[in-house]
Amino acid sequence: MTQHRKYSILFVCLGNICRSPAAQAVLQRLVDERGLTERFYIDSAGIGSWHIGDLPDKRMRVHARPRGYELTHRARQVKSGDFEDFDLIVGMDAANVDDLRYLAATIEQQDKVVMMGDYIRQYPNYDHVPDPYYEGSEGFELVLDLLEDACDNLLDRVLGFRY
Q1: CB under 8 Å to 45, separation ≥6 — which residues?
Q2: pLDDT value, residue 162
Q3: Domain extents for the chain?
Q4: In the annotation, is 61 catalytic?
Q5: Which of 100, 120, 149, 152 is 20 to 30 A away from residue 162, measured at CA?
Q6: Of the residues 43, 57, 99, 131, which is catalytic?
Q7: Average pLDDT over residues 131-139
């Protein structure tokens, strides 16, 4: 990380209304709590265009609020410039990662793409963050549990700590 530019992380899910805006909020709070706000830029986007301009899914906002997360991000679609603008692009599942690698114009851009599941440690039965869109309350709570675990580990990895 250079002193002149913030390290930038983009979280990506299918529509940018559940998993990726929640990941953005979770990591932002961790960065803020560790006093690293000036060193990081965190954003989220979706593979698809269905929800551009929308707030996160109401159910995700309802489940995030008691944990102290206010999800106010407006959905946007991944764009080609994101591969130049971001240092790390994190897909929530294998399909997101495949789509992102397909959209990347170069091998260097493909190398910026990682899967959120690679950072999950406390939930060994999960290698990805499942989409809660068609699930009940337990699906949204699970996503938040997985993201809190994975974001903590991801931040440690970016900072150079072992986990």
Answers
A1: 10, 11, 12, 16, 20, 75, 76, 77, 78, 79, 82
A2: 56
A3: 7-159
A4: no
A5: 100
A6: 131
A7: 94
